[in-house]
Amino acid sequence: MTDALPLVTIGVTSYNNSRYVVDTLNSVANQSYKKIELIILDDCSKDNSVSIIENWISSAPLKATLIKNTANMGVTKVCQNLLENSSGKYFQLLASDDLLVEEKIETQVQFLETHPDVAMVYTDAILIDENNDRLFGGFIQRNRPDLLSAPSGAILENLLEGNFIPAPSILAKTQVLKSVGGFDIDLTYEDYDMWLKVAKDHPVIFLPEIGCKYRVHRKSMSNSVNLGWIETNLKTLIKHLDQPKALPIILETLRMYYQEQPASAFKYAREVFLKTGIKPNEYYFAKYGLSPKIFQLAFALKRLIR
Fold first, then answer.
1. What's residue 278's pLDDT?
2. Which CATH number among 3.10.450.50, 3.90.550.10, 2.60.120.510, 3.30.360.10 corresponds to the domain 2-221?
3. CA distance 77 to 72
4. Cβ contact 204:116 at 8 Å
């Protein structure tokens, strides 16, 4: 009976998570759905992750492949490598500190197999800390508190306003991920750009059954501005300037970035203004419904975009 089921590839990204990686791998091995191809790619960890993974594989109840990078390549290149090496009909990524709920893959495969027009499904995620204690709220609530319900179907416009999809919660058609160009290796973070590319031309469906536990570390709980995250968001959104809703969001993001990194903000803003043909004056800001908060940045850019 298992032979008739579609193969699912789970790609685990490993980097310095020796404390958590066995629990992560066990959450894959314990899936109620058994036709799984497990590929683990270690990105030159400095701890003993590799030896722990090798020991786990030696007695694993499923076939698992370990790829070891000899130099650190970064998460987007790791994700793309995992996608290129996948042979499953469906694909998902899993960081080596996150966990899957036991019936996740089974539930999502059943849905995708009966809804062939759907490219990807996602769920909310339980948030846990370093000690596996549950944190208040879920991933969607924490990242997009403005959402009254999880978007489903044509989600692109909602997604442009900010990511709300937990990466370990998704299951997607491998061919769709490859057809949209895979993961952009020039970005720092892998998931948001991929979700936008998929959602542009395909339905993405929210399923109510929670599929994963997403680990939140103390550093990521900080209220300080994460400039790398803001810059990656800028690069990602600029790629999607063909979407009308992207422009005001980009300019508002530029305003935040300008406060911390004015020189880099100028570079990205110049690219945006040149691509769109927008001039920094009141008429264009009114025409595009842009926030007055961006005026300061726009007028400072006059000398660059005349």
1. 64
2. 3.90.550.10
3. 10
4. no
